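[audit] Reproducing an earlier prediction to check determinism. Same input, same settings, fresh worker. If the tokens differ from the archived copy the diff job will pick it up downstream; this log only records the rerun itself.
[audit] input (273 residues):
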Amino acid sequence: MIIDVHSHDFPDAIASRAMNGMCRMTEGNLWPTGDGTLQNHLDAMELAGVDKAISCPIATKPKMFEGLFRRACQIRDGELGERARRMIIPFASVHPLDPDVMTHLEMIAAAGLKGVKFHCYYQDFSLADKNLWPVFRKIADLGLVVQCHCGTDISWKDLTGLCGPKEIAILLKNVRGLAFIAAHLGGSDGYPPHDTDHVLECGAYIDTSVLHRRWHYDEQMRILRSWPTDRILFGTDFPWVHYPEAIRWVKSVRDPRDWDALFGGNACRLLGV
């Protein structure tokens, strides 16, 4: 089984606008392999033999919770099609500054959703901000999984110190028991070699959703080659990475004996699917 723990799709009505906006933000340095719609996502998964994918929405404003939560429940219930119900693992998203964030987290858990997506740049917060740690303690207490963008971001080239390896380690040392997926190989881009190893020491998982492998290539290869098998999850950040390319890259680095765990076994265990 292949499970992508990091992917994105949007409602049909806004997919084109959302994708065009993000392409502009990257100033031409990042172009999608899909159109951002759910059906295109499902088609790409089927063509590549990907069985399931976590769909990761981002609440850039507190008021976005309701709409994103409703769509996640629609996917869960099959209202957006049987393929989506079978193949998509819908995460929710909360804005950490939402005054109703604790209630919203309880709603996510009660609905049987598996986790919550965060993006510190879009949501303007730091993982090291102790004022927000109660939010993450609540997530841990509810048994939810965090999927979080980590490292630098091509759309915020001059902004750092929000979700790098140091900030991840600070959070996880202060919020014990939090199931945390550190995207993009634990935020290796833009940080010195071996910084990401602090994330390993704190019990995080990393995913393989590296968008530009020419950046810090030696460090990316070192992490993917040397980290323990049971701490790595296959992720793509689709539609920003072509599924076959992402699969080939992981297979080219890791021993075939690791493939079952990396591509699906670890995620099944973490998510309970």
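[audit] rerun output stored. Observation attached for the diff report: The domain at 3-271 is CATH 3.20.20.140 (TIM Barrel).
[audit] end
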